[in-house]
Amino acid sequence: MSRGRPSYRALSDALPIARRRGTTQLVRRAPENLYDFTIVSAIPLAFVRVSYCTRIHAPVAEFVNDFREELFMLGRIPTHTTISRELWLRSRHGTWRFFRLTADSLAELGQDGMLLSGGNAVSQKTCAVGEK
Questions:
Q1: What average pLDDT does the structure give for the chain?
Q2: How confident is the model at residue 4 (pLDDT cuts 50, 70, 90)?
Q3: DSSP bridge partners of 24
Q4: Cβ(104)–Cβ(125) below 8 Å
Q5: How does DSSP assign 89-124, residue by residue?
Q6: Whole-prediction pTM value?
Q7: How many Cα atoms occupy the beta-carbon half-sphere of 80 within 13 Å?
Q8: What is the pLDDT of residue 125?
Q9: What is the Cα–Cα distance from 97 to 94, expressed in whole angstroms?
């Protein structure tokens, strides 16, 4: 879970990963911002929020509860087939996990933005993603 100040190290480490997927546009950090940066590529347009995570290997259901605020903010971005709302989590050792918030679930992604085969996904109905 992330508490306190935003993780600027996680954000700066996320940008090279994002640039491999397309053109990035960074947004100045502020509490009211819904995302930290966008990735513009052919399709989809990704809105990404980055956070520090102490338990990076936890089950997806725990992330839904631990990062409720971040998921709530991403959930305010309208859904569309050409839009990806993503939560990127970084451990203190530099390990990453990537998730896509859909209308009804939180699904795990690879660094390339593709859904992991047999990937972890948690239904919104089970964990109430996006509710504050």
A1: 86
A2: very low
A3: 39
A4: yes
A5: EE-TTS-EEEEEE-SSEEEEE-TTSPBPTT--EEEH
A6: 0.86
A7: 9
A8: 46
A9: 10
